[in-house]
Amino acid sequence: MSKKLEGKVALVTGSGRGIGQAIAFKLASEGARVVINDLDNEPAQETVEQIRKMGGEAVACCGNVSAPDFAERYVKTAVDHFKGIDIIVNNAGYTWDDVIQKMSDEQWYAIMDCHMTAPFRILRAAYPVIKAQAQADAEAGREVYRKVVNISSVSGINGNAGQINYSGAKAGVTGMTRALAREWGRFKVNVNAVAFGFILTRMTAADAHAGATVKIDGRDIRVGINPEAVKTFSQRNPLGRPGTTEEAAGAVYLLCTPESNYITGQTLAVAGNVS
Q1: How far is C-alpha 177 from the chain's CA centre?
Q2: From residue 151, how far is each of 95, 210, 215, 257, 267 by CA, in Å?
Q3: CA distances in angstroms from 83 to 30, 43, 63, 99, 206, listed in the order given
Q4: Which residue of 31, 91, 146, 259 has the fewest CB atoms within a 10 Å radius of its CB?
Q5: Domains of the chain and CATH, by start
Q6: pLDDT tens for the 275 residues of the chain, in order
């Protein structure tokens, strides 16, 4: 029995760890060749090696997705190694929270650049490749659908106190998704978004009050959620728990399969029915 994504080429940003890594593993397990990305070389290469041990194909393109030259380099990596692009998952992201009166311009633009500008640049850089492939398919009489999955958040749907930058950026992802679905439908590209709720990752699992941080673009960004907040979120959720990275990846995978060929411009909430 053939795998559903056999031979497809998938770009997944932020895929050295967490949700992105789970997405990369899932797509690779279904036959996709994956271009891995992470800020740091070590986790990216570890993910590549794990995919190869699974019998899959992968290559790394490390760096900050917000860098002006990243998008062209990322697309070039896919074309140079795998000769095309079939799936783009704009997953890389983080939070840098504060209430509006305390939020700096630096915080605002850092989150906007990561969640909005970076996906825009990657999709813009991919356009010539996508167009050429679509034209070649049409001339050969082939019907091939390609996929874009942008990662949003329930914070972008309903807002979240202390996250005006992140909520604004993730709301923008929804608008970008809808616009591109209209532009790229003629190329048989399905463009959708997944809005995650509370998913357990390194960014959420640590206790914020213990002072846990991660280094992003030279900045020490505080991460984690207070255990009492985790308990509250779980109580509000009809399923009684946060989601796993594998469950998050499964939702993205659904929108990369042939079964989603007539779904485009949509935002799928993956949050256990918690808004």
Answers
A1: 13
A2: 13, 28, 21, 17, 9
A3: 19, 25, 21, 45, 40
A4: 259
A5: 9-197+244-270 (3.40.50.720)
A6: 689 999 999 999 999 999 999 999 999 999 999 999 999 999 999 999 999 999 999 999 999 999 999 999 999 999 999 999 999 999 999 999 999 999 999 999 999 999 999 999 999 999 999 999 999 999 999 999 999 999 999 999 999 999 999 999 999 999 999 999 999 999 999 999 999 998 988 766 655 445 666 777 777 777 666 666 666 777 778 888 889 999 999 999 999 999 999 999 999 999 887 65
pTM: 0.93
Catalytic-labelled residue, pool 74, 94, 166, 253? 166
Integer-rounded Cα radius of gyration of the chain? 18
Residue whose pair of structure tokens reads 């914020």 in the numeric block: 208
Angstrom distance (rounded) from CA 51 to CA 58:
7
